[in-house]
Design brief:
- With 117 residues, the protein is mostly beta strands.
- It has no helices and eleven strands.
- Strand 7 and strand 8 form a beta hairpin.
Length: 117
């Protein structure tokens, strides 16, 4: 089982990034997929969730609502997080996780997002 995030990097405030998380080794469409982030000195927080199997339902934390879009492509076993109007407060390591019921079954290794001028 693998979840591999990509797409992080350094971006100026107001910029955009699209994070990707490629899954393998499990039936991707059976799992809700989630994005989390952890900033230095802070606890990990859930950023966005997209339901299984086709992503009919999505949820976001308040601080990213209207600026972020989570989506999934089951044909590619990939979940995305499009982030726009990025702010310094979005700086964190971003992780994807596969969720079944109330449990997070699998985690990726994370990708760094830094928002700075």
């Amino acid at each position: 089982v693998q979840l591999v995030e990509s797409g992080g990097g350094l971006v100026q405030p107001g910029g955009s990034l699209r994070l990707s998380c490629a899954a393998s080794g499990f039936t991707f469409s059976d799992y809700a997929m989630t994005w989390h982030r952890q900033a230095p000195g802070k606890e990990r927080e859930l950023v966005a969730t997209i339901s299984s199997p086709v992503g009919t339902n999505t949820k976001y934390i308040e601080s990213v609502k209207g600026r972020s879009t989570v989506s999934r492509d089951n044909a590619k076993n990939t979940v995305y997080l499009q982030m726009d109007s990025l702010e310094p407060g979005d700086t964190a390591v971003y992780y994807c996780a596969a969720k079944m019921g109330v449990s997070y079954a699998y985690w990726g290794q994370g990708t760094q997002v830094t928002v700075s001028s």
